[in-house]
Amino acid sequence: MGFFRTARQGKIDDAELGTGLWRRAHDRFIRGLDRYHQVLEGVEDEVLYAELVDIANELSELAVRVRMVCVEAQRRSPSDGLDIPGDLAGVHRSLSTAGNSLATTAEAAAMLRLAVGPVPTGAVSVRRRAESVLEHISDAERRLAEASAGD
Q1: What is the reported pTM?
Q2: 40-55: pLDDT as tens digits
Q3: Which of 66, 81, 90, 121 gives 20 to 30 Å between its CA and that of 143?
């Protein structure tokens, strides 16, 4: 059953996101989310785990927003390659930076997981990086709205 569901989702993704730039931005964000969730599996401190799960839930909610931006960008400027359309370059840059920030968020969570002894500040560093992800996605949404207002 999982194979068919994956194949069907791949066709839906191809139709909505294309196979180029916007699909890559979306998939990179999803891979970053998966990486973050994998880090959670090894956290033994219950208090830290609870903090990191709260952050994970917030990041997971952002995946819907990233998909909406990528679907709309693909609709406006279809991409089957890696050429960045000039009118949506800022949208792509913000999505790309959000993906980078999500990767550093997962990295910060991994560093906390590996810490020896209690972590005095909890997940403050992870929270700060997660807020950066949110800022970049909000910026992508704003830039997309501005680009449509200019049409």
Answers
A1: 0.88
A2: 998 888 888 999 999 9
A3: 81
